[in-house]
Write a structure and sequence with these properties.
alpha+beta; 12% strand
């Protein structure tokens, strides 16, 4: 990625997180969808599970 000119930095405390610098502005489209999950599913997603 760096060879393609992207600036990438690693989070100082969470090593699984990378920051990728994006030059913009880019418009992010708004999507009118919701995902509703119960308490237990939401807690599992916070721990890394897929919904």
């Amino acid at each position: 990625m760096r060879k393609k000119g992207l600036k990438i930095e690693q989070h100082p405390e969470i090593h699984e997180v990378l920051f990728v610098k994006v030059n913009g502005p880019f418009k992010i489209p708004e999507i009118k969808k919701r995902v509703i999950a119960d308490k237990f599913s939401a807690e599992r997603v916070l721990q890394g599970a897929h919904l």
